[in-house]
Amino acid sequence: MDIFQMERSGYGSKRFPKLVVSFLIAFCLLYMVSMVYRSSTFVLIGEAAKDNGTGEVSENATTPSEMEDKHPSGTESMVVDKLLGGLLATGFDEESCISRYQATSYRKTSPHKPSAYLVSKLRKYEDLHKRCGPNTESYKRALKKLSSSHINGTTDCNYIVWTPSNGLGNRIISMASSFLYAVLTNRVLLVDHGTDMAGIFCEPFPNTSWLLPIDFPLTNQFYSLQPGNAHSYGHLLKINNMNISTVSQPPSFLHIYLAYNYDRHDKLFFQDENLGFLQKVPWLILKSDQYFVPYLFLIPSFQQELGKLFPDKETVFHHLVRYLFHPSNQAWGLITRFYRAYLASADQKIGLQVRVFDRKASPVNVVLEQILGCIKKEKLLPQVDEQKPIASPSKNQTLRAITIASLYPEYYERIKSMYWMKPTVNGDFIGVYQPSHEEVQHFGNNVHNMKAWAEISILSLSDVLVTSSWSTFGYVAQGLGGLKPWILYVPAGNKSTDQPCPRGMSMEPCFHFPPDYHRISNTRKRLDTGSLVPHVRQCEDASKGIKLFNAKQL
């Protein structure tokens, strides 16, 4: 019987539904088996990467393209708070700055949520910046005021222009400080990134720019921003016998100098009674390399507002730095490629930042002894087994990855060699990595700053962080990561110390060179800032510095 005869007789029409049903059942069974196999394959890949133990990417490991839609740690079901509890605004083109919403999936969720008042204040600031930012009508009107020696009446918008000083870490902490001052005083922050910071950060505010236009009229004065500058606020106070009330009309602009070597007149910027005069000056041109936020908490006029913005005082920089500073796509590429190649498969990520300010005063062997003493005393890494050439097999072996950020390669080479030549006492595998070693700090170099920003960000992805005393580089990393670091005291001499790296009490940066409070407040008696407000105390790593703490934890 041919096919035509089968169909005419009805035989084919009866058989066809049975064939379809059989096919569907077989297809479902095959699909279920394939899904089970696929799931087990992912588990095997994860175990293979863990067992590799060298820190190298396994040939069978998941490729970067397969990881695009997965949490880097492998937790695919993790819910990621892309807006950081409302800290970040919506409305950005995500492709223009991939890190803005993706970075949170590379680190643990922060337990520190921004206050509702801070979120509201940031949205209001964004509206102000959009109305007054570069190329707006308000900005153009404000520029015309610069040609006048004095100001009569008020202006639509007031500005604070940030100019760079020292290295990238100093620049980030001072920009964050300037932004908070702008929020407190209803000013618009514009920043001069020049050529050496071009393309490192994304724009932080939606539908506008914080970059100072290159045709800004006072750009040629930026290099003269030094103590005693003729256009500085400190100089104005000096020639008026420290009495600002004798100045009948405010100038159209003032230089504010708050770098490490500022003089006693410049320090009077923090004087509460003179804030009203500064509010009448449309343009403040600021130069600073300091995190001067802690002193803002000592100014009575700001205290109530700051209390509402930051109920938890040790989270100020944590929120500011995550809000303002997002790696550009180029920088984010450096960060993610390093992370996926060396850190993604690690059970624990440890960051070690070694900043040596004077190599002659701090020899390599002494600094290395300090580092190893820190690791041993604080039990940050397992010790090596001097007796056995091979670690005993264990089901609980852990892969730990340590990233070393330093200008110099010697610390990396010694630590890597130590964990390669001997097994650990508990059988853990230790991968040691260093993204770069520039040997010297290159000021004014865009590539150097790009690498520095990438390494800061990589350190911030750590589970455990060790930073160097006095280092603003480390301050930024701990703020981004929301980490209380172990603070490595780099010895200035031929001996290491008994306390190589005590745990920091706060993740806030230190204001290294604050003014003496009794000079600012016109009191004769020297006062401990802790007696004024409980959350401003002496820094752990700088005896004359001050920083913010959570008073409840002191």
Automatic annotation (TrEMBL):
Gene3D superfamilies: 3.40.50.11340. The keyword Acyltransferase does not apply. Residues 53-74 are annotated as: Disordered. Its main location: Golgi. One of its GO terms (cellular component) is Golgi cisterna membrane. GO terms for molecular function: galactoside 2-alpha-L-fucosyltransferase activity. The keyword Acyltransferase does not apply. It is a single-pass type II membrane protein. May be involved in cell wall biosynthesis. This is Fucosyltransferase. It comes from Populus euphratica.
